[in-house]
């Protein structure tokens, strides 16, 4: 088509403007209610991200996005060309800001990506003319709530998730109406929200159904430990590296006597030779054992409970912090603290790789992620034995006991990850352990003061020798292995000594006495009113010295119990009151294993043979069991234990197939497909059975009519709910054969006369027509 003279005379810019003016306008989304609810979804997502990550994105993003959404509503019919250019520039700015932040946050990119999405959404709110654009906002809100779920460590996220779901269900309903080009629902006044046309009852039922299914899946779904991708770690910490003394331990709860201050940055004498009694507690929530030298009398008093740490781990355990080898009589000290060395990581990686001694005991890799909630010492807790450490400093310190220290104290919000090789505790293997110890083990872990050694050795040896006579049958075999002796002595202390009901009632250990002798022998020759036992750490000290007295190498370690496991967040919530000491025993060629002689504690700390795979379901069962009689609980528990055992074994074997090469992957895929087919076939059979049961309850005429509809539905001619029986018969007449159409028409007329006119029908005739219809499948 030739171009007219006026068009040829136009400038290129004018031609572009004219072509843009001739382009068809995009129909905007006219549902104000849909826009408001979508915006609400995004706001909830932003708030959830703020709460989970402890940021302040919502302070600027929420009001600005509301302004943008309001502006776009009033300008939804315009082309807004100038605004689109401005939005494009803003997008480029957001991209540049994202790239700059990404370079410094490669350790954990989740929050950086969430910030980018929030910025994109705020920009996007100024340009929301179409339903598709609202779909983008819905997707961004969904991603934000998902990111918040990965960042959240508390149940504060739960009500936000529920609110998001409550908004999302009507959004999906309104979005579907918009796709069908139905008239938008409007609100004439705030008092008429309940009458805007939304099916509130059905939406409420759907919300309840989704929540019910979600909770069931949450309870039944196995929680397999592990991380995908990068391991959690805080952003890099800046500090003066020249001032980092690897021998120093910073304890924020203690300070030197005679010095003012809160003790937040106290550096205990690095060589461990200072007087521990010169350090005093300045915080009643601090544990006295996190120092290079500890004094038993420093344990006096009661700690005020406080949540100090959250741990996500593949298995529970004792979160080990420090180990002590030299017994001072009044406490413990690290004798080789001066041998503590700095360890640097590669500049291109955040991972510290630490050497750990080889062990003949089978072990399992366990990943733990720690988040500090309070100011803690610069000691890095972790399960033994640490193999890899992801920590936000370029260097750390490693002492002779294998304990890791940080250049800075663990501050609130600091996150790091530990990868440990945790040994399985195999009784049969450990019972065969040798008693030939390396010279260094003998030198440092059999030390015992000469003035207490004879009496303590005789007392402990008598306990071991008299073991068979102390048993009920008095014919038990004698204790010969190191492992058996260690278990028995720990159990003996649990049974014959106790923790004080009032910790303040215990006296100080006299300066001319030692903790172990005072614990065991202070009531000799005294009246029965003498209180035996001591603090929890007194049990560990006494137990350690008893083992040393009979030639078993042992050391004292301090750290935290696993804490309370929260099945809803997946974290172990660790309090300061979980801190205590226990004993580690050395087994040649197998390494150090922990024993706990404290009453009320298990003989050994939780290990890798205990996991939280079905933790939520276990918590649910504990709640239900509290309401049932004991015999019923015992019977159900027995069945449940057997079922769960087989389930865990089956899932483990199935997942293990995918680690056996191509043949394993093929076998696992074949099994998964077979199981899926069996489930589908079973569901089909159940559906058919339920349909047959429903038909049996109907009258003969209605049963025949419903069977006819089912036959035609299977042939691709379903009946729309809005159609009457006669209208549906007309639809069948237009698409099917004459014989089929006649049968359908006669059955439909008979059903209509019976249903609406209460006229009796010839059931035999209708059954004959249905049989002919079934035979005529090809038509």
Structure write-up:
By secondary structure, this protein is of the alpha+beta class. It has 4 domains: 162 residues, no CATH class; 188 residues, no CATH class; 146 residues, Coagulation Factor XIII, Chain A, domain 2 (Alpha-Beta Complex); 78 residues, no CATH class. The protein has 23 helices and 21 strands. The strands form 6 sheets. The protein has a 7-stranded antiparallel sheet with strand order 11-13-16-12-6-19-18, with no helix packed on it. Helix 21 packs antiparallel against helix 22.
* Strand content range: 5-15%
Number of domains: 4
- The overall pLDDT, averaged over residues, is 82
Total strand segments: 21
Task: Describe the global form.
Answer: globular
Indicate the structural class.
Answer: alpha+beta
Helix fraction?
40-55%
Give a short account of the largest sheet: 7 strands, antiparallel
Low-confidence regions? 258-278
* Lateral arrangement of strands in the main beta sheet: 11-13-16-12-6-19-18
Q: What is the overall number of helices?
A: 23
Report the radius of gyration as a whole number of Å.
37 Å
Q: What is the CA-CA span between the terminal residues?
A: 52 Å
